[in-house]
Each structure stands twice: as C-alpha cells, then as structure tokens.
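Q: My labmate handed me this sequence with no annotations at all. I'd like to see what the chain might look like in three dimensions before we decide whether it's worth expressing. Could you predict it?
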Amino acid sequence: MALNRKSKRKRNNLKIIFTLLIIVILVIFGYLIFNKVIVPVWERYKEKPIVTKEVPYEEEEKREVRPVPTEEMFEINLYFSDSQAMYLVPEKRKISQTPSLAIQAVVELIKGPENSELYPTIPKGTQVNEVYIADDIVYIDLSEEIFKNHPGGSSGELMTVYSIVNTLTEIPPIRSVQILVAGNERESLVGHVDISRPLLRDEDWIKP
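A: Here is what I predict for the chain of 208 residues:
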C-alpha cells in the first residue's frame, strides 16, 4: 500500500512538473510570438502615417508694370547765327514741355547749336531768371551776363535779340517778346537794338 502511494505521488509530481514545463514553454513561446509579431504590428498601427503634403506651385505675384510716362516733347526751331552774323538759321530740336516751354527754349539757345556750322547767339554764363506770359506777350528775364559777356557790335546784338524773339514766337500763343535783364527793362543790350518794348517776330533776319 505504501508502495502504491509512493508510486502514485511520484506520478502526480511528474504530471505537475510536466504541466509546469508545458506552461513555461507556452509562456516563452507566447512571449516570443508577442514580441516578434504582435508588438511590431501594434507599433505600426499606432504610428500615424507621414503624409507628404504636396503644395501646389504658386506663381510669384506679378506686379503690374506700368509704363513710365515719357515727358511730352515739343519740336521747335531754335535760331542760331550763321558764320557771318548776317542771318539766323533754324535748328530743329525737341524740348521738354515742363516746367515751361519758353524757359526750356531759351536754355537750349544758351547751350548753343549742335550743328558745327552755326554759332551761338547768347553769351556764355547767361541764366534764365524768370519767364512771365501775359496774353500773347512773353517777358523773359535774363541775368546780367547777357550784356556783360556780349562781344558787342550791331550785327551781334541783332542776332542775340532776334534769336530769342524768333525762337519764342515759335511757341503758341506767343506773338511778341520783351527781354528784361535782372528783372528790369533796358533800352538795349549793348547800345544798338531797342528792347524797351515787346518785339514782334521778324523773319527778315532768317536766312532764306
């Protein structure tokens, strides 16, 4: 009887050990499966997919390019002296209409001709002080260099005066011109031509 009990106890112990061994093996196997299969799948499931957002190409904002308004130009005849100081010869030139056509015209006269066969009529250093227009008369106020730097002579003075008068009467509505010096009226520039009153255009001095 004692032997039977021992034998039975031994078999029970073996069963327990075998059962524990199976459990251990199952646990290890389960752990391996969990670690190798379930965990990676779960991690992938948890991760949010990275979505690359493709931003559509936007064209650079194009600024409206407005053409810069070019200054309105006025073509005028400037009158310069011939080589003998006998006649005035017209030279066409385009001048800006701002701030004043009359001022611009006289400034261009002071610069002198572009044609090498023509000669300046206004002495160097002369400045335009002011221009006044009343009705169809223009009053052009010049600096004292107009007479101080003048070479003299009746022909030279005629060329100076009528180059100014004939040039400015090219500009409508100007019909006559009075030359002032340093803001004052003068009898003449160098003693030959009366400039104390407005002068009309005189085409007799223009070369035929």
